[in-house]
Write a structure and sequence with these properties.
359 residues; 2 strands; 2% strand
Length: 359
């Protein structure tokens, strides 16, 4: 496990360092430091308060999604969620998404596959809201077709954004199709029958071997499908889906408002709430690509690109994006670490134990 962690960290930090270099290579270090010093850090406090409020709403949403499988209290949902987000900030590969159901299994005895299914359901709401906002962005925000920012071997322009949006849309459709397939009785039974028919592929083998395949492979797989189904049971309750959708709108509105509040203390960032929201959306599409620890470098690339779209200078864009990035992840890391201490969770163990068992 230690070897896997070391390799992951080295790869993640290398990608982050390269991305940070490519983003800030044209911004003098002295200018960047001068900008960071000039920020009015009083605005950090309300920005962090709004940010953490959005995470409280995430907890309520996850409770509703989990309800169909098991009822958990606010704190029983809060600690795994914050630990998961904290792990995403310190380790590469988005292992926090796997760590969250691992913590839930360890502390609340909820099957790992059920917890993982609820995390996937959450992502459907998040991706859906982001795609709606992204469509509004493309329709309302004029993006200069001639704007082209070179980032390593990549060209960041309108076409890049449209391509990223298309890829995210395909991911959303894939998630929805998967949920439908295991969430409804007829399709789930068809999948289970297909799994249980695997031994018949070995027609040349004897009954003993076929029974072994059924016991060791087929029945555990069917059990996983059933556990996933309980995690996706939300599809049977339209009212809960509407509540989760409404909470998702508020979650992302608060996230954008946190960005906007921080911008009030940053020189040169005189943008409207709609423009700051567009800035956040673009960052989200960037950090959805390669996952490095804390999204360092990738976040800055998306943030600078987004602000340049609105006429912000490279120096101001770099300074604000770097400062806001820190404000957006360090409070989450601190709260997540406190949750890990309160629940006595070994962060590295829950991050990689399940991953290793599955590989």
């Amino acid at each position: 496990m230690k070897k896997n962690i070391t390799i992951s960290l080295i790869i993640g930090m290398t990608i982050s360092a390269l991305a940070l270099y490519l983003t800030f290579r044209n911004v003098p270090v002295a200018d960047l430091l001068a900008y960071v010093i000039s920020i009015n850090y009083f605005w950090i406090f309300p920005a962090v308060l709004v940010l953490l409020t959005s995470f409280v709403l995430r907890v309520f949403r996850w409770q509703i999604i989990l309800e169909s499988a098991a009822k958990v209290s606010f704190w029983q949902a809060f600690h795994p969620l914050m630990i998961g987000f904290m792990i995403n900030c310190i380790l590469p590969g988005r292992v926090g998404e796997v760590a969250r159901p691992a913590v839930l299994q360890k502390k609340e005895n909820i099957p790992f596959s059920t917890g993982l299914a609820t995390v996937a359901a959450e992502r459907v709401f998040d991706v859906g809201i982001l795609l709606i906002l992204f469509s509004i962005l493309l329709a309302t925000v004029p993006i200069d077709p001639n704007l082209d920012i070179v980032f390593g071997k990549y060209h960041l322009n309108r076409e890049t954004l449209v391509s990223a949006g298309g890829g995210t849309f395909k991911l959303l459709i894939l998630l929805i199709v998967g949920i439908i397939m295991v969430g409804f009785g007829k399709t789930r039974k068809a999948i289970n029958r297909l799994i249980m028919s695997i031994p018949y592929l070995f027609f040349f083998s004897g009954p003993e071997f076929k029974n072994k395949i059924q016991k060791k492979i087929c029945e555990p797989l069917v059990n996983v499908v059933e556990n996933f189904t309980s995690g996706f049971a939300l599809v049977k309750y339209p009212s809960k889906i509407c509540i989760c959708f409404g909470l998702s709108v508020f979650i992302w509105a608060l996230a954008a408002f946190s960005y906007y509040i921080m911008a009030q203390g940053c020189p040169g960032i005189e943008l409207s709430f709609a423009e700051i929201s567009a800035h956040m959306i673009i960052i989200c599409f960037f950090i959805a690509l390669p996952s490095v620890p804390g999204y360092w470098g990738i976040w800055e690339a998306g943030g600078v690109f987004a602000l340049v779209l609105f006429g912000v200078s490279s120096k101001d864009a770099a300074g604000y994006t770097l400062a806001n990035h820190a404000i957006q992840i360090f409070p989450v890391m601190i709260v997540g670490l406190v949750s890990a201490m309160v629940t006595s969770v070994n962060i590295l163990q829950v991050s990689y134990a399940k991953k290793e068992k599955k590989s």
